[in-house]
Task: structure prediction
Amino acid sequence: MAFITLDTKKLKKNFNYLNSFFKENNIYWSVVTKILCGNKDYLTELLKMGISQYSDSRISNLKTIKAIDGNVETIYIKPPAKGAIKDVIKYADISMNTDFRTIEMLSKEAQKQGVTHKIIIMIDLGELREGVMREDFVGFYSQVFQMKNIEIIGLGTNLSCLYGVLPNNDKLIQLSLYKQLVEVKFNVKIPFISGGSSVTIPLVKQGLMPVGINHFRVGETLFMGTDVYNGEQFDHMENDIFKLYAEVIELYEKPMIPSGEMGTNLEGDTFDFDENNQGKTSIRAIIDIGLLDIDMKHLDTTDTDIKYAGATSDMVVLDLGENPKGYKVGDLVEFTMDYMGIVRIMNSKYIEKRIV
Result:
């Protein structure tokens, strides 16, 4: 059976590095837990590390976090849908918002539940995903800040996720200026400017982070050790906290080119083969994962002698060449994954989740 592992020692190393880094720079940070897909065992290991705030875009995941430790603070990090309002108030201490009518519903539900719900207003700084347009922001704020049982604790923005618009000093200065504007105009105090994410960490390292950006939401760099801005790995961080293992369920020497009339495969793809391989053979292994579990472009085998040959819904075919490592049926093939590869695997109920 295929399984994914989480190495808690390596995760703790990355956590400690980031925690010290943010403390040194007077930045409050929240762990984005999306990659764990609500897995209770993995979340329990994460919560042991001691940070007090967790962010996710799935209510069910926040519910699991609260069940593990009801004292930690949770953030719902996408604009709430109408049908989720009740649970957002129940399981999220804070939510990120962009729509006046949605905040009205949150206000009414917060009054019903007898709580004050905190919100961060998101501003669109050019990524064209969620966010109030800049020219509308002051008017939007004026409609929201007196709502019952709603406390505006921050302004925020999201960059790089949709179109890859990178954060820079100019964009983040704009965010800080909006904070100063509303504080003066409405005689309020905005505690947090949530302008940071994994992609923004290099700006802090380079001393390019504007004064006032004091809240980061970080997932990928914690779990992957990645410098998202430059597409590299950070020194002193681990990048293989997660590994995937799949079992060899068939192994034979077979031709390198299929025989018969060629059509399309189950995904509608057609294939061309190198005629120089006509009549040649190689050792081919089938492993017990498939397209229902993973997009193979997000996987890499740790054994560089292995090549990807193709996949169907429940099986992946690997070309082992002459099989120099001597794989046999029942052996495990080890893979590392990028962020989306891990998320896909974590979402598959057919892949066992183990802790190292």
In short: The chain has a mean pLDDT of 93. The chain has two domains: 8-233, 242-355. The longest helix spans residues 169-186.
